[in-house]
Amino acid sequence: MSEAGQSAVSVTNVRNLSDAMREMKNAAADRADVVVDMREASRTRLELLAQELQPVFADVPADDAAFDFALSSGEQPRLWIDAVAHVVMGRDRRTYRFLRDTRLGRVVLAESTEIAPVADQVTRYIAERMVERQRVVEGDVETLPRGAVEETEPDAAPYRSAWRGFLGGLGLVLLGGIVGVATVAVVMWDRFPELETLLSRF
Q1: Could you give the angle at which helices 115-138 and 3-59 cross, rounded to 10 degrees?
Q2: What is the mean pLDDT of residues 188-196?
C-alpha cells in the first residue's frame, strides 16, 4: 500500500474517533443536564416546604442547638430538621419523604405528594422533641408518699428461693458423684482383688 493510502486511512480513523468522542461528550452532557434538572426540581420543592415551615422554625428558640433547619445541596438535596431527621424527595421527585434514622434503621415518619401532611408531621416531631428536652431539663421527678419506699424494697423471698435452688443443685451434684463412684467400683471390682480381700476382713 502506498504512503498516500496509509495517510488517508489514518485521517479517516482519526475523524471517526473524534466524532464518536464528540457524540459521547454530548450524551454525557445531556445526562448531566437531566441530573441537574432533577436535583434543582427536588431542591425547589424542598424550598417550598421550608417556606411552609418557616413560622414553625421561627418559634423555636435560637439557642436551641438540637435543630438544624438547613437545606443541603448535593446529589440528593435534603431539608434537615435535626441530626437524625430530614425530608427528602422520592424517586418520582414529587413525593415528600420525612425520614428519621434510628438504631434499628431508617423510619419513614411521613410520605405524601402534598406539602401540608408532611409539614404537619414535621411540626409534630419538633414539638415532641422540645417537650422531651424540657422534661429532661426540668427533671420531671415525682415525690413518693411515705411508705412507698418500704413497699418498693425487695422481698426476702426471692433470695430464699435462690438459696434453695443452689443447695438443691449442689445436692444433685454430690449424689451424682456418689453414684458414679459406686458404679465404677462395681464395674472394676474384678480388677482389684486386693480391695476385695481388704473389704472381706471387715
Answers
A1: 60
A2: 61
